[in-house]
Amino acid sequence: MSLRSQLLKGVLEGCILAVIEKRDVYGYELSENLKQFGLHDISEGSIYPILLRLQKFNLIEGEMRESPAGPKRKYYHLTDEGKNALRQFRQEWENLKKPVDDILSGGDWDAHERSD
Amino acid sequence: MHTKDLIKLNNEKRSLLTKENEKYYSQMLSYVRTHFFLSEQHAEEILLELLDHLLEAQNNGKTAKEVFGDDLKAYCDELIRQLPNERRSSYFTFTGFLIMNLAGISITITGLAIILKHLFTGVEPTFYIGTAIVNFFIQACFIFFGIYVVLSWLKRSAFTESSNYLKDLLFLFFLFFVIGVCIIFIPKLIPSFGAQFSMNGYIVLLIGVIVWFSSEQMNKKFGLK
């Protein structure tokens, strides 16, 4: 697996949970939503292994429903466990965001050494 | 939705794909389906979901390659990793059905053979119960082995671009020939043991048909095939 896909995997999981939290979506809608936010480079198909995984851990559930376009689609919604997992993910992300940014941008080493 | 309906819907919808997308999608389909231990219901659900996605993408001018990426095998392996396996109970029912079905066919053929032999030679062949049971299991093993080889061969050849029909045909012919020879000749090497009996060909035929018929009823009830 490439570095890129390893990095994306966990992050994408959190993003997918967040999209589903907003409203129930089916696969194609979900991939369009992710693109609207600027995640253009991931292949659309890559959401499906993640959707399977999230279902396996009971974080989301699928349900067949009529779509506005006509045919029945599998719409996903969050379970209570999914809501918890999303809350946790948000918190983890908050904790990671700043330090990772600082390290990657080659930030202020002195300030961190002094504080140790 | 029942697995059979999912497969039917999949067949209908697949005809809406462009030729190129159909080829790409069918490779995924056959690769996932040759994974015998996966839960068929879950596998068919995700396959149909992917097909729906592809159809919608196709309407918006995207190709299957853009949707599923360049490395189709890696993509399918990732899907398969996330899919649950078939429940053990339905796996046993299916094996039970296969064995009964095979036994039914085998007993029916034996019945016919006895009738023919009796017609032409006037003798009724004798059987040894021990030998008959051992032989049946040897034959069943070879048939399962054949199914296994064909499945893994399909699995391996799912993504090869240029399929050589002559080579495929020769391989299948060779496989069936070898299995056929083993099924016919290995039982002749098994020594006779167990109680000896001779049976009227029509009774054997009747038993065979009953076993075969019950296995088909079992199939209908559980929706195995």
Description:
Chain A has helices at residues 3-22, 27-36, 47-56, 80-104, 109-115; strands at 25-26, 60-66, 72-78. Chain A is α+β, with helices and mostly antiparallel strands. Chain A has a three-stranded antiparallel beta sheet with strand order 1-3-2. In chain A, β2 and β3 form a beta hairpin. The longest helix of chain A is centred in the C-terminal third of the chain and has 25 residues, at 80-104. By secondary structure, chain B is mainly α. Chain B has helices spanning 3-14, 19-33, 40-59, 64-68, 72-82, 88-121, 129-157, 165-189, 201-222, and strands spanning 126-128, 196-198. Chain B has a two-stranded antiparallel ribbon. The interface between A and B is medium-sized, with 18 and 21 residues.
Quick structural gist:
The complex is a heterodimer of chains A (about 120) and B (about 220). With about 120 residues, chain A is an alpha+beta fold.
Descriptive key words:
heterodimer, A: 116 residues, alpha+beta, three-stranded antiparallel sheet, 3 strands, 14% strand, B: 225 residues, mainly alpha, two-stranded antiparallel ribbon, 9 helices, elongated
